[in-house]
Amino acid sequence: MGKLDGRVIVITGAARGQGEQEARLFVAEGAMVLLGDVLDEQGAALAKELGESAAYVRLDVTREADWSAAVEAAKETFGKIDGLVNNAGILRFNELVTTPLDEFQQVVQVNQVGAFLGIKTVAPEIEAAGGGTIVNTASYTALTGMAFVGSYAATKAAIVGLTRVAAMELAAKGIRVNAMCPGAIDTPMSNPAQLDPDADPAESSAALDELYRKLVPLGRVGRPEEVARLALFLSGEDSSYITGQPFVIDGGWLAGVSIF
């Protein structure tokens, strides 16, 4: 018996990285998953691999019309929606005073507006299905400072605030809302070498482990499947009395600075 048997969950940014691992784990735990992304070839291939329990739809999270279409696709394919994982996001590195306005606004549109539109569009469907869960993806940087990721950190802090408000407003409708705050995770967003077909994945991951060995108490970068397991916990009955909370998953990075 799976922890998500019979549930229908929409996952954004599901074609690769954390979203892909969440989709794989959720299907393995009995869920039916609508994969949303703008990486059509990868998303469609993943849905085909996962079989009848998965379907892919093109979903630009900044477009309200795409969200409406995704909801209709989920209902047409699976009959209802019980949960949402707002995973889609982008990261840009820049010093605040040299960040172009259009770059800042692009990050806001994808990370912050995307999460807002997801909640706005999907929450009524979750309520209609009898209640469920929303998991937003914030970040370690929502809770502490990090140089050169100002636009990213601002949007992730906003997601934590949005999560708390949504949890308060939606509790009476049977919807729990929580946020994940990952630290450094080995995905294409933080490790672009994964996108290089000539690169050795094991070598690039080892390089990240070395980079974070002295920064993170657990001595390595995080894996996307570890974040997926947290998303599973927050989407299932094991977290039935938890709502409105940010969950840090960072290998201890936020705990403090080691001098050794």
Polypeptide structure, described:
The N and C termini lie far apart (45 Å). The protein is globular, with a radius of gyration of 18 Å. It has a seven-stranded parallel beta sheet with strand order 3-2-1-4-5-6-7, with helices on both faces. The chain is 43% helix and 15% strand. The chain is of the alpha/beta class.
SSE blueprint and pairings:
Elements: E1 8-12, H1 17-28, E2 32-37, H2 40-50, E3 54-58, H3 64-78, E4 83-86, H4 101-128, E5 132-137, H5 150-170, E6 175-182, H6 201-212, H7 224-235, E7 246-249
Parallel strand pairs: 1-2, 1-4, 2-3, 4-5, 5-6, 6-7
Helix pairs in contact: 1-7, 3-4, 4-5
Number of distinct beta strands: 7
Strand content: 5-15%
* Order of SSEs: EHEHEHEHEHEHHE
Helix content: 40-55%
**In terms of structural class, how would the helical and strand content be classed?**
alpha/beta
Instruction: Tell me the span between the first and last alpha carbons.
Output: 45 Å
Strand order of the largest sheet: 3-2-1-4-5-6-7
Give the overall average pLDDT. 94
What form results from the Cα inertia axes? globular
Oligomeric organization of the protein chains:
single chain
Runs with pLDDT <50, length 5+? none
**Backbone CA Rg:** 18 Å
Largest sheet: 7 strands, parallel
Tally of helical segments: 7
